[in-house]
Riboflavin biosynthesis protein (Malaciobacter canalis), 279 residues
Amino acid sequence: MKKSYSTLINKKNITSIAIGGFDGMHIAHQQLFKKLDKNGAVVAIESGHSNLTPKSYRQEYTNFPVYYYVLDNIKHLEGEEFIKLLKEEFPNLKRIIVGFDFCFGKNRKYDTLGLKKLFDGEVIVVDEICDNNLAIHSRYIREFIKNGNVKKANELLGKNYKITGQTTKGQGLGKKSFVPTINLTVENFLLPNEGVYITKTTIKDKSYKSVTFLGHRVTTDGSYAIETHIISEDIENIIGKIQIEFIDKLRENHKFDNFEDLKKQIVKDINNALKYFDK
């Protein structure tokens, strides 16, 4: 799962940094990281709105150490003060890598040209990265996920979208009347819209084929739930954190006239997921 490098590497050894929000750690972000040298690091500006890779989850998607700076703590700094802070934090800094639309300083009044003027080392500006003429930005990825188009979101991310949650007690109907599921509570992550998805569920570093439902249980109690069913495995008494990796959407959330119709649909969902995994 996540790796932790920030506590292992002294900032004095860092010679290059990539600066940005980096929510999602998507394909375009990875292009910035390719410009880092072997003593590079990622500087993530934490705005409080990151929900693709919230908190320290960015570290999972790079081998470079990730250092977090809270935007509210630095947004008042003038350009010179911001550069001074970076040089104090990373005294051997020789190279800064940013995206084409990078802005910094008070009221975001400094851009990449300002960075080149103020920083006495090398500044590399990475051009906009596109996928089939669509610019790759975290805001577009969020929209695809919110609309349930996780397949397109994954294309822009360069990986499958993942959420991490804590196991919780469900209705108890799954094992008795349908199929056993693991119920989750999820915080901070953006959730795909309601429906049933082909997924992989990771439990204690082992990945399982799964089908995951997100939404209001309109056929039963009407409450919102996140439930994942492990296919062809007997997994019981799971406690703690698990990770769900979204691959594609199977269908929308529907209300069924009776439990028998719901059960038939669940079996169909599982079979459709198996067809995907068998390809």
Notes: The longest strand covers residues 206-216. The helical segments are 27-33, 71-74, 79-89, 112-118, 138-146, 150-157, 173-177, 259-278. Residues 100 and 128 are 6 Å apart (CA to CA). The mean pLDDT is 92.
